[in-house]
Amino acid sequence: MAKKRIVVCGGNGFLDGKRVGSGSRICKVAVGRGWDVVSISRSGEPVWSSVTASPRRPSWSSSVSWQKADMLRPATYRSMLKDADAVVHSMGILLEADYKGVLTGKEPIWSGLSRAFSATKAGSQNPLERKDMEGLEPQEHDGQLTYELMNRDTAINLAQEASLQNIPSFLFISAAAGAPLLPKRYLTTKRDAESTIASSLPKLRSVFIRPGFLYDSSRAFTLPIAFFGTAGNIVNSMIGGRLAWLAGAAVEKPLKADLVAEGVMEAIEDTKVKGVIGTTAIEELAAKAWRRNML
Question: What is the pLDDT of residue 289?
């Protein structure tokens, strides 16, 4: 029996660019489940010290095909999707250049934050109306990689490519909530991607994973954040969730990166799963996989 094939876009680093390396964790879990695994990113194989506790190449990574491509240019990755059974979008940005510039002192505070927290920015041309093999072109005057482009349009574009190749399943790593210090567009662009994919590509089994903050012992800086996030989640639960509107992801239950990766693969393998998968459902899917492995 031929192996099932999964393509993880963004599989070499942090999940959607902001947290512990769940793109690579998805690859690891998929290898363990016997899948043929392809990772697509700009750089190919990751710098292991950036996603694990060791600079050494882990043994499972030799079973992954680490490919380089530009997710704004379908011509660079379309052939890599051939014969896939599932495609995962696990990439994006947490901070735009304006915000990063303010934090590093390269941008004036007022003008940088004004642009970063603007109500809307341009993404690309409509991904669903592009010509065959046409790339996504940044529409901001300075070519900035915006939330609209990276978190929304690349996901819609990849889902469309998966649909055109009759790939059965598409999984998008979204987010449970925004955060007080993040522009609202970080979350709204992800929600826009979910709704557009679900409504415009109805034949594609789409799964939208919405985790909160991810942590792992190999990335020590994530542990105190997870501790305070867990405390916030407990307090929020005790008062009926009344802090969620204000604190967002800060009071969403943090999840271990490996747990989310197990939940992702369980969702892909269970063809009854589709639509939005929140924190509790992610935990349930991972627990289902754990129980099966214990038998």
Answer: 83
Residue with tokens 């690309």: 124
* Banded pLDDT at 21 (limits 50, 70, 90): low
Question: For the purposes of burial, counting CB atoms within 10 Å of the CB of 259, is it exposed (0-12), middle (13-18) or buried (19 or more)?
Answer: buried
For residue range 54-71, list pLDDT tens digits in order: 788 899 999 999 999 999
- C-alpha distances out from residue 119 to 95, 148, 180, 183, 205, Å: 15, 11, 15, 9, 31
Residue of 249, 243, 180, 262 whose CA lies nearest to 210:
249
pLDDT band at 110 (very low <50, low <70, confident <90, very high): confident
Neighbours of 136 (CB within 10 A): 22
Torsion of CA 32, 62, 18, 155, to 10 degrees: -80
Q: Which tens digit of pLDDT belongs to each residue from 69-95?
A: 999 999 999 999 999 999 999 998 888
Both tokens assigned to 13: 């680093």
Nearest to residue 213, comparing CAs of 255, 260, 258, 262? 255
